[in-house]
Amino acid sequence: MEIPLQPEPPEVLAELGFLFREYFDLAEKKRRWSIRDDVPWKQCNRNLPPAVADVLQTFVAVELYLPDYLGKLIPQVRANRGRAWMLANWGYEECKHSMVLEDWLIHSKSRTDEQLADAHSEVFAHEWNLPYDNGRAMLCYTTFQELATRIHYHNLRRVVIQEGGCPALEKALMLVAIDEAAHADFFRKLLAVYLKYDRPGTLEQIRRVINTFKMPALHMLADSRRRENDIKNLRIFDEDIFVLEVYEPLLQKLGIHKSELRRKNYKREMVSGNGTAKDVTATRT
Ligand SMILES: [Fe+2]
Ligand SMILES: [Fe+2]
């Protein structure tokens, strides 16, 4: 039986709210950017290989599910101000990502307005649903996914440079990757708070997520297998990159030993733990 989650006490809610305010103030001061003014649109390379535009369009499609992400994530945390307000701010930052990438597809003449309109219709024909049934698991998922997303953009930028470069796209991808890194960092800090006050319950959710992790919405797109292969073939992201650059660094930063994620060790940890842990053990028998 799954380890139940402890309810969130007021001091935890206060800590999450404080972390959001810290994140927000820093973003306002150092990380705001303008699609129109901060990308050198006149320096757009129209001769990059078509594979770059194909992968970029896949990333745009994943970003386009924003209404589903927000519409389903916010109700899970509506009484948790730090997390709910973050989702509002996160949504603002994420909406810029699909717009700046689409602008490049148009500027570079890789896609027409009509082709992008068709891509929009295709995306919204399917609805994204939450992969996990509780807000804690979704926080774990988001932490892993945001770091994985940063790596996708960073590695696509590397491919662009290798293929002859494009100052406009390189800048856009850098701005987006910096946002994604900030998201990953923020959600990891929240996860650390949950680990501090409810380690067994939070570890259980992390275990669920890492055993089943996949990037959001990718499998819902037409030609999803081909799109995944394009990403792998360009060495933008694959299982090895997930383990070496997402899974292991995150566990290390969170102070989690891999052995803690094995189920048999949960029992030992809980039996030797405090009263709360004993109660939890009882519910698992
Ligand atoms: Fe994004
Ligand atoms: Fe993000």
Brief description of this entry?
The protein has one domain: Orthogonal Bundle (Ribonucleotide Reductase, subunit A), CATH 1.10.620.20.
Provide the descriptors you would attach to this structure in a database record.
285 residues; 12 helices; binds fe (ii) ion; mainly alpha; 0% strand; Ribonucleotide Reductase, subunit A
What proportion of the residues is helical, as a percent range? Answer: over 70%
**Ligands, deduplicated:** fe (ii) ion
Q: By CATH's scheme, which homologous superfamily applies?
A: Ribonucleotide Reductase, subunit A
- The second-level CATH architecture is Orthogonal Bundle
**What is the domain tally?**
1
User: CATH first level: which class?
Assistant: Mainly Alpha
What percentage of the residues does DSSP assign to strands (E)?
Answer: under 5%
Secondary structural class = mainly alpha
Number of strands: 0
Average pLDDT, all residues: 88
Question: What is the overall shape?
Answer: globular
| Major sheet attributes | none
Would you write up a description of this structure?
By secondary structure, the protein is mainly alpha-helical. The protein has twelve helices and no strands. It has a single domain, classed as Ribonucleotide Reductase, subunit A, CATH 1.10.620.20. Bound molecules: fe (ii) ion (2 copies). One fe (ii) ion binds next to helix 6 and helix 7. The site of one fe (ii) ion has 5 residues, from helix 6 and helix 7.
